[in-house]
Design a protein that fits this description.
This protein is α+β, with helices and mostly antiparallel strands and 131 residues long. It has one domain (29-125). Helix content is 37%, strand content 13%. It has helices at 2-14, 31-44, 64-72, 86-89, 103-106, 122-125; strands at residues 75-77, 96-100, 108-112, 117-120. A 4-stranded antiparallel beta sheet has the order 1-2-3-4. Strand 3 (108-112) and strand 4 form a beta hairpin. Helix 2 crosses helix 3.
């Protein structure tokens, strides 16, 4: 009995932070905003610093739409840029980790390394740090 309880606890703990539950996705939210927030949650999984799409493959089942958007290029990722932890995000500059493929040319949704999603114009996009 203790063994199965311990196993259950370990499995539950290993899934923390990557459960696929939409973070902040609610009524009235634009579909693209919700997708960008899911992409941010996906990018935060594991180490939070990924070099390529294959690094996120273990989390695809939890975030299928976000994974597909990254795979198709609908959302562009600045690979090798780390998502920040809670303690780091307040003091960090606003660096873009992911964005809609058209954001640079015509505006769209961006995801910052602190986990904030924001709709920006093309002019605003050019002002942000893209590591």
């Amino acid at each position: 009995m203790r063994t199965s309880a311990l196993a259950l606890a370990l499995i539950s703990f290993s899934l923390l932070g990557c459960s696929g539950n939409p973070g902040g996705v609610g009524p009235g939210m634009e579909a693209q905003e919700a997708l960008m927030k899911d992409a941010g949650d996906l990018l935060r999984c594991g180490t939070g610093n990924h070099a390529k799409l294959a690094d996120l493959a273990p989390f695809e089942a939890n975030f299928p739409k976000a994974f597909q958007a990254l795979k198709s290029g609908d959302i562009v990722v600045n690979w090798g840029t780390a998502m920040l932890g809670e303690g780091e995000s307040a003091k960090a500059p606003q660096a873009i980790i992911a964005h809609d493929k058209e954001a640079q040319a015509s505006g769209g949704w961006v995801m910052f390394t602190n986990g904030t999603a924001k709709k920006v114009t093309a002019a605003e996009f050019s002002t942000f740090n893209k590591k």
